[in-house]
Amino acid sequence: MEDVLLRYGIIGVGMMGREHLYNLAAIPGALVVAVADPDPGSREQAVAVASALQLSRPAPPLQVFGDHGSLLDSGMCDIVVVATPNMTHAQILLDILNHPKAHHILVEKPLCTTVEDCYNVIEAAQARPEVLVQVGLEYRYIPAVAKLIEQVKINSVGRVRMVSIREHRFPFLVKVNNWNRFNKNSGGTLVEKCCHFFDLMTLIADSMPVRVMASGGQDINHLDESYHGEVPDILDNAYVVVDYENGVRGMLDLCMFAEGSRNEQEICVVGTRGKGEAFVPESIVRIGARDSGREGVLTYEVHDKRVKYEGLHHGSSFLEHLEFAAAIKSNGERPPTVGLEEGLMSVAVGVAAQQSIEFGRFVTLTEVIARKR
Predict the structure, then answer these.
(1) Topology of domain 6-138+314-339, per CATH?
(2) Whether the domain at 6-138+314-339 and the domain at 140-307+346-368 fall into the same CATH topology
(3) pTM (two decimals)
(4) What stretch of H or E contains 118?
(5) Torsion angle of alpha carbons 269, 234, 119, 328, nearest 10°?
(6) What would the CATH number be for the domain defined by 140-307+346-368?
(7) Residue ranges per structural domain of the chain
(8) pLDDT of the chain, 373 residues: tens digit per residue
(9) DSSP E strands, the chain
(10) What residue stretches are annotated with the Gfo/Idh/MocA-like oxidoreductase C-terminal domain (predicted)?
(11) CA–CA gap between residue 110 and residue 354 (Å, rounded)
């Protein structure tokens, strides 16, 4: 794969966009040639990162654009990474998919902030089958999580009945113009942050979600903040229950004022034969069988030797890029691992959860995804 050079452009070089710069610098055959961002400070920081990276891996000077349209028009890139604020994803994706020059796309999660926008993007992508689109639900690639998924697939826990995910972590980080403090920009916490977990639940359940019940609130974080006279309205804790067509039940336990946690994510899968757990960032997986009890639980410390850069997400962003590059180089033989339909479903469950809290009742997925297509 190293003999094929893939030229990348990054649209949006805030914190996550710069994280992609670091990851791509460690990918064989990948070269970031251009970035675009309307924010001068973000552009300056991206140039500084690129310059530092060039010390260990010589590359042509980075081309910098103030808007994504200019980057697309340049024709410099084979692939564009969209790492802009959530509420901008839909229009930027449509601009890329409607552009005469074909660019493969890796878009950060969530695909869009609304189900309607997701459908619009999917329809535009169907008209450009030569363009590969991968959604950045990279938690699938976290080594411990991937190991747990592998164990589930080989029937180590039997037929899956329950999937529970706990994320206990720190509050949302500060972003450019504080866009992530408001539901109207982010889609809401259960879309913005938790689409990762709804994607994992659906993958492990191997079924379609049918209804969602959630309880949540904003109890601690951002209550003393104000931006242009508006107080942030994003949830900082929630419980979400998801029922699947095949009878599997999923549960999310989210708390964003729980910095005093040994692990940020704990994922538990219980089946007819036993139980599997993954702990991140400890990178430990435990597998136990009902007939062997507590003493028979096996513990694995998990590492993926392919990871050359750990970064902010325990190597998962690196592996995501590695897999997407392989899909592009396969000339259509290997589709992206996480496609647009998976991106849509992860957003739909998050939207249903947000609505469940608002309405105080179960919300069916039919209510959320019903649309004349």
Answers:
(1) Rossmann fold (3.40.50)
(2) no
(3) 0.95
(4) helix 115-126
(5) -60
(6) 3.30.360.10
(7) 6-138+314-339, 140-307+346-368
(8) 345 699 999 999 999 999 999 999 999 999 999 999 999 999 999 999 999 998 667 778 899 999 999 999 999 999 999 999 999 999 999 999 999 999 999 999 999 999 999 999 999 999 999 999 999 999 999 999 999 999 999 999 999 999 999 999 999 999 999 999 999 999 999 999 999 999 999 999 999 999 999 999 999 999 999 999 999 999 999 999 999 999 999 999 999 999 999 999 999 999 999 999 999 999 999 999 999 999 999 999 999 999 999 999 999 999 999 999 999 999 878 999 999 999 999 999 999 999 999 999 999 999 999 854 4
(9) 6-11, 30-36, 63-65, 79-82, 104-108, 133-136, 160-168, 209-217, 237-244, 249-255, 265-271, 274-280, 284-289, 298-301, 363-364
(10) 150-365
(11) 14
Paired tokens of 30: 């990948």
